[in-house]
Every structure is written in structure tokens, then in C-alpha cells.
Amino acid sequence: MRLVRAALLPALLLATLAACSGGNRTFGERVRDTVDPPSGPVESTGRAVDRAIDRVRPN
């Protein structure tokens, strides 16, 4: 049971972080999603997390 909780906690945190990005994608992000669409929910969530982190991180 501890292993299941340990696995679900990071997934939950990443899902909430991905939800913060909203639908305001740049033109390049929309083109990438059209030309090379995510091949599943994990890749889609990964892209959303990457975009959310890039928006939060200062340049």
C-alpha cells in the first residue's frame, strides 16, 4: 500500500501542475501538437507539465 501511495503522489502533483497551464498555447506549440500529436495521455501530460514549468521559470 505504501508503494502505491508513493507512486500516486507524484502523479497527482504533476497532474495539478499540468492543469495550471490552461489552454493558452503558443503558435509553435499548436503546430507541434498538430504535426506530432501526443501518442497518449502520459505524453500529453508530460508536454503540459513541460510547458507549465517553462512558463513559471524565469528566462
TrEMBL record:
Bias (Basic and acidic residues) ranges: 48-59
Residue segments, region Disordered: 26-59
Signal sequence coordinates: 1-21
Keyword tags: Signal
Protein name, per record: Argininosuccinate lyase
Organism from which the protein derives: Muricoccus nepalensis
